[in-house]
C-alpha cells in the first residue's frame, strides 16, 4: 500500500511538471468600442480587482485603424490594414467576404495556434458582414469550438442570432446578448479546462458597449445607446462625460469636415451623457464575465500558466470635438485604447508606458506560445520591466479609409447618406480617409496626419492633450515657431514626420517595425531624434510628400499618391566625380542612396 502511495505521488508530480512545462493558456477578452479616455475601466470593479491590480495596464496602446472589422483583421493577423486590405466593415472594402477573398480565413492567429498544438474557442462578434446567409460560405476556419454573433442582428442586444460550430443560425430573442456570450464563453472554458494536458486559446468577444442597432419601420437599422441588463439600470445615474478641454469646444480642433462641425446643443449633450451611462452599464455584464472566467481558471489550478488579455477593437468619442457618438477619427479618444495583460512574469499592479499597437498582439501571443513568426508587421509587446528597457516602439501607424459615421438618434454630419443598413438614414462624411502617425517618447508625444483632401495636422499631445491646436494651421503659427525637439526647429521636424508616414503607409514586415532603417539603411538612425541631425536636412526636404490624388472609400492604390521614400545615400554608391558634385551642393556623402543623382540637383 505504501509503495502504491509513493508511485501515485511520483506520477502526480510528473504530471504536474508536465502541466507546468506545457505551453501557456491564453484567455482573450475583446470588447467592442470601449473608450479609455472617458475612464470606462474605472467603472469596472471586478476588472480592476482581477486584472488591473493583478496584471499590467498599458496606457500607450493603440489601434491602428479606428473601426471594428479592419481593426480586428489587424489584431488577428498582425498585419497593417494596408496589407490585409480589409478597410471597411462591409463589402466591397471589408467585412467577412473581404476577409475570405484576402485569404485571411485560412491564415490568421487561431490557425497558427492550432498548428502550434492549441485548442481554440471563440464566442461573440468575429467579423462584420458575417451573417445569417453567408455563415457557411465558407465556414469560419481556425476554431475547435465556436459560437458567433451574426449580422444583421449583431448589435441588437435583445435579438442575437448565432451559429454554433457551423450549425444553422439560432435566435436568442429576448435574451441579453452580453450575458448569452458570457455563458457560452464559460462553457467553452469548462471544456478547455477538462484537458489540462493541452494548451487552449479562449476568446470572449461581447458586443458591449457598442451602440444598439435595431430594425426600424423602414427596414433600416436605427442606432441608439446600447442596451443594458435590468440588474444594472440603477448604476451611474450621476455620471457625466468628463468636461475636458476638447469636450464640445468653443474653438474647434481638427481639419476638414471636423473643423466645420457646429457646437452641440444642450439637448444633444444631455442625450450623450445618458448614452455614455448606458455604455458603462452595458460593460457591467462584461465585468461580471471577467470574474467568472478568471475564477474558473483559478479553481482548475491553471491560473499560474494562463495569460489573460483584455482589450477592445477601437476607442470612442462622444461630444469631444463636437462629434456625435462614434469612432473612425485619428484622435487619441478613438485610437488610444485599453490593454491589460495578466500572466506568468507579468508584474502585478504595474502601469506600462511602452508604446504598442494591435499589430503587435498576434506576435506577442505567438511568442508566448513558443511559435513565433517572422512575417508580422508587429513585434512582441514588452510584458516585463526588463523587456520594456529594450523595446523598439516609438511609433504607431494610423490609417483610415471611408466614412465618418455618426451614431445615436441625433447623429447627422450632413454629407451624404449611407444606405447599407448600418448607417441607417444618418448622414455620414465621405472624405474621412487619412494617413497618420503617432510618435511617443519620454520627451515628446506627437500626432501627424495627412488627409485625402491633402489637409495636414500636427498636435503636440504632451502640451495639448486635447489635440485642439493644429500646429500646421496659420492660427497656431506662433506656437509652432517656439516648438523644438532636440533643439531642432518645427520646420525641420515636419519633413521627418512626413517621411516616416510615407514609409509606414506601405510598409511590410520588418519595415513596419524599424521604419527609420528604410530611410537610413546604414542603420545609424533609430528614432525621430536621430533623424533630426542637421546633416539630414536637405535629404528630408527633398523627400516625396505624402499626398492623395483622390478621396476613396477604400484602399485604391492608384489614389494613394507617393508610396516609396528615397533612401539616404552612402559614399560607395558614387564615383569620385559624383561625390565631388554632391560636396559642392553641400550634401555629405557618407551614406547610401538608391536612385539617380539627379534627385539632388
Automatic annotation (TrEMBL):
This is Arylsulfatase. GO terms for molecular function: arylsulfatase activity; glycosaminoglycan binding; N-acetylglucosamine-6-sulfatase activity. Belongs to the sulfatase family. It comes from Rhizodiscina lignyota. Pfam families: Sulfatase. Residues 1-20 form the signal peptide. Its EC number is 3.1.6.1. Residues 24-371 form the Sulfatase N-terminal domain. PROSITE patterns: SULFATASE_1 (PS00523). It catalyses: an aryl sulfate + H2O = a phenol + sulfate + H(+). The conversion to 3-oxoalanine (also known as C-formylglycine, FGly), of a serine or cysteine residue in prokaryotes and of a cysteine residue in eukaryotes, is critical for catalytic activity. The modification 3-oxoalanine (Cys) is found at residue 68. The keyword Manganese does not apply. Gene3D superfamilies: Alkaline Phosphatase, subunit A. CDD domains: G6S. Keywords: Glycoprotein, Hydrolase, Signal. GO terms for biological process: phenol-containing compound metabolic process.
Amino acid at each position: 500500500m505504501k509503495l502504491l502511495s509513493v508511485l501515485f505521488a511520483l506520477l502526480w508530480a510528473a504530471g504536474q511538471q508536465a502541466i507546468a512545462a506545457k505551453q501557456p493558456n491564453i484567455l482573450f477578452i475583446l470588447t467592442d468600442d470601449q473608450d479609455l479616455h472617458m475612464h470606462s475601466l474605472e467603472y469596472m470593479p471586478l476588472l480592476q480587482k482581477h486584472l488591473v491590480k493583478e496584471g499590467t495596464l498599458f496606457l500607450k496602446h493603440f489601434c491602428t485603424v479606428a473601426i471594428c472589422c479592419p481593426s480586428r483583421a489587424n489584431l488577428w493577423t498582425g498585419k497593417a490594414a494596408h496589407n490585409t486590405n480589409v478597410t471597411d466593415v462591409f463589402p466591397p472594402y471589408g467585412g467577412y467576404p473581404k476577409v475570405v477573398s484576402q485569404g485571411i480565413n485560412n491564415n490568421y492567429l487561431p490557425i497558427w495556434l492550432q498548428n502550434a498544438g492549441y485548442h481554440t474557442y471563440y464566442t461573440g462578434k468575429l467579423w462584420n458582414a458575417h451573417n445569417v446567409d453567408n455563415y457557411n460560405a465558407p465556414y469560419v476556419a481556425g476554431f475547435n469550438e465556436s459560437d458567433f454573433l451574426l449580422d444583421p442582428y449583431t448589435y441588437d442586444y435583445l435579438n442575437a442570432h448565432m451559429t454554433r460550430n457551423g450549425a444553422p443560425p439560432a435566435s436568442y430573442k429576448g435574451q441579453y446578448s452580453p450575458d448569452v456570450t458570457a455563458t457560452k464563453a464559460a462553457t467553452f472554458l469548462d471544456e478547455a479546462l477538462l484537458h489540462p494536458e493541452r494548451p487552449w486559446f479562449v476568446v470572449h468577444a461581447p458586443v458591449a458597449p457598442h451602440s444598439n442597432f435595431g430594425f426600424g419601420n423602414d427596414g433600416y437599422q436605427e442606432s441608439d445607446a446600447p442596451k443594458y441588463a435590468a440588474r444594472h439600470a440603477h448604476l451611474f445615474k450621476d455620471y457625466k462625460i468628463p468636461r475636458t478641454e476638447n469636450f464640445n469646444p468653443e474653438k474647434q480642433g481638427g481639419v476638414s469636415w471636423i473643423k466645420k462641425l457646429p457646437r452641440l446643443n444642450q439637448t444633444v449633450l444631455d442625450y450623450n451623457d445618458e448614452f455614455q451611462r448606458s455604455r458603462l452599464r452595458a460593460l457591467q455584464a462584461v465585468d461580471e464575465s471577467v470574474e467568472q472566467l478568471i475564477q474558473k481558471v483559478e479553481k482548475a489550478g491553471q491560473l499560474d500558466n494562463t495569460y489573460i488579455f483584455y482589450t477592445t477593437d477601437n476607442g470612442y468619442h462622444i461630444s469631444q470635438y463636437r462629434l456625435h457618438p462614434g469612432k473612425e477619427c485619428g484622435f487619441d479618444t478613438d485610437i488610444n485604447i485599453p490593454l491589460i495583460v495578466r500572466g506568468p512574469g507579468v508584474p502585478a499592479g504595474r502601469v506600462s508606458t511602452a508604446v504598442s499597437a494591435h499589430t503587435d498582439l498576434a506576435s506577442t501571443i505567438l511568442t508566448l506560445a513558443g511559435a513565433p513568426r517572422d512575417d508580422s508587421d508587429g513585434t512582441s509587446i514588452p510584458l516585463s520591466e526588463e523587456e520594456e528597457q529594450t523595446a523598439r516602439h516609438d511609433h504607431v501607424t494610423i490609417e483610415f479609409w471611408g466614412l465618418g459615421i455618426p451614431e445615436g438618434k441625433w447623429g447627422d454630419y450632413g454629407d451624404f447618406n449611407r444606405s447599407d443598413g448600418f448607417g441607417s438614414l444618418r448622414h455620414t462624411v465621405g472624405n474621412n480617409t487619412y494617413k497618420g502617425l503617432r510618435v511617443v517618447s519620454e520627451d515628446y508625444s506627437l500626432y501627424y496626419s495627412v488627409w485625402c483632401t491633402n489637409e495636414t495636422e500636427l498636435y503636440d499631445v504632451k502640451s495639448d492633450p486635447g489635440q485642439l491646436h493644429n500646429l500646421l494651421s496659420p492660427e497656431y503659427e506662433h506656437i509652432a515657431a517656439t516648438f523644438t525637439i532636440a533643439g531642432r526647429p518645427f520646420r525641420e521636424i515636419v519633413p521627418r514626420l512626413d517621411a516616416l508616414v510615407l514609409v509606414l503607409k506601405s510598409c511590410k514586415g520588418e519595415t513596419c517595425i524599424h521604419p527609420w532603417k528604410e530611410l537610413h539603411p546604414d542603420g545609424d538612425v533609430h528614432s525621430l531624434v536621430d533623424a533630426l541631425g542637421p546633416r539630414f536636412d536637405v535629404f528630408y526636404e527633398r523627400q516625396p510628400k505624402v499626398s492623395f490624388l483622390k478621396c476613396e472609400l477604400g484602399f485604391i492604390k492608384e489614389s494613394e499618391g507617393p508610396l516609396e521614400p528615397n533612401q539616404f545615400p552612402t559614399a560607395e554608391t558614387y564615383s569620385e566625380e559624383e561625390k565631388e558634385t554632391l560636396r559642392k551642393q553641400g550634401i555629405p556623402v557618407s551614406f547610401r542612396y538608391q536612385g539617380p543623382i539627379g534627385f539632388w540637383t
